[in-house]
Hints:
By secondary structure, the protein is of the alpha/beta class. It has nine helices and six strands. Helices cover about 45% and strands about 10% of the residues.
Amino acid sequence: MTMFEMAIFDLDGVIVDTAKYHYLAWHRLGKELGFNFTKEDNERLKGVSRMRSLDILLEVGGIEKTAEEKEALATKKNQWYVDYIMEMDESEILPGVLSFINELHQAKIRTALGSASKNARTILERVGLTNHFDVIVDGNLVSKAKPDPEVFLLAAQKLQIPPDKCIVFEDAQAGIEAGNKAGMLTIGIGDPQLLKDANLVFSGFEELTLLHLIMCLA
Ligand code: BG6
Ligand code: MG
């Protein structure tokens, strides 16, 4: 018998590598504003909401803007980002993700998406994964960004599954913190040092089977 009834997946960095498209768009905005926004700077934006990401970018560039100007800059960045994601297809699903989700379906474990992105549904459509999730909670449905647990708690609530029967897959520190605060099991996908607060960390789904995961949790 498995110990969890629902698996909640973050999107960016777990299911697809959209961080590279976010970076291209933020870098372009930095360039327009007259500074070089580096890949290292971009690490700080993982799991962070669009407006908070813009604040970090402006802080890196030492630039101040009014609320109205910020709104316009965020819109501009998002338009460039949407141009990139409209080119995506199923080849961009990260290795092993689809077979892992299929294993969950076979085991009758519910699946959810818990993402900060307001573009989550567009991305799922592009890569053909929309119908693989029983529930989708994205940046349009929540008011409090990760590390607040709202996004994950809402997903659990929608399917009436107790939080302690949920497992969260996350690549961002803020996301692991959100999952822990929600009282869920947390699985880090990525660097074990960065994700040290997770219950377990794996480098990706390529090597991960449901059986292996259950054995690691036992
Ligand atoms: C998160 C990403 O999933 O979504 C962040 O990790 C991003 O980098 C955030 O800023 C918001 O995304 P969007 O698509 O609503 O701008
Ligand atoms: Mg992420």
